[in-house]
Amino acid sequence: MSSALFIHSLNNSRRSLVGWAIGCAVIGMGYASTYPDQKNNTDSMPAGVRESLNIDGSAAGYLQATVFGLILPLLAMIYGVTAGLRSTASDEESGEMDLTLAHPITRTKLVLHRFADAAVGALGISLVVWLALLAIRDSAELTSVTPVELLAQCLQLFLLAVTFAALAFGIGTALGSKVAVLVGSTVVGVIAYVANSLYAQFDAEWIKYLSPLYYYMGGEPLRYGFQWGHIAALVILSAVFLTVGTIRFNRRDVNS
């Protein structure tokens, strides 16, 4: 029964997943393909200006600052929250959760199978982004970044989406409220951005370690490949969010 629910849930979300995958791939390719022009502009600047503005003209630096530093992580977080919201609080408020729980399946299995659906979707999106960037790697003059380094960064993108999906699942299963999921996820996202981007202004290096975005990008996988410590941190954080929400879900009345 549980595997049937997983397949059914994945089948229901297939159209949105295709849209997410194509959209993220096209956006990634669009930004990455402008690297040759940006490199020419950067090379034409005096060295002193580049140093004062902290401009990195390398392919890895460009991808880190644009493709994987701006729009794709934002989309990954939005996907994760949307998947978590749809599978938990949204179903509960619509009454569909009651119908699902009437079947012979435990609440824990229900949460895990629906979370697996969100994770499989995030994995598919990240793989499509990786393949899309590989397709334009030569034409966009990105060959200094190896396929393995691109894969390492796409793995971090996948884990970032999973982390925010786990956050949404945790809040949704614990509270059963769409508003709580949206507000809680937004607050965490803003705090994560501030902690990762502005910690130097507070002269507090430790603040960045509180941000999922630091573990997503801080190890610079586009330069150094797989960052196993950061990967472990995102996996543990996801497990904590999911475990706390599941424990609460098993102890409360649905739609109460």
From TrEMBL:
Organism: Streptomyces oceani
Keywords for the protein's UniProt record, in alphabetical order: Membrane, Transmembrane, Transmembrane helix
One example GO MF annotation: ABC-type transporter activity
Highest taxon above the source species: Bacteria
Keyword Transmembrane helix: yes
Protein name from the UniProt record: ABC transporter permease
DNA-binding keyword on record: no
Membrane-traversing stretches: 62-81, 115-136, 148-172, 179-202, 222-244
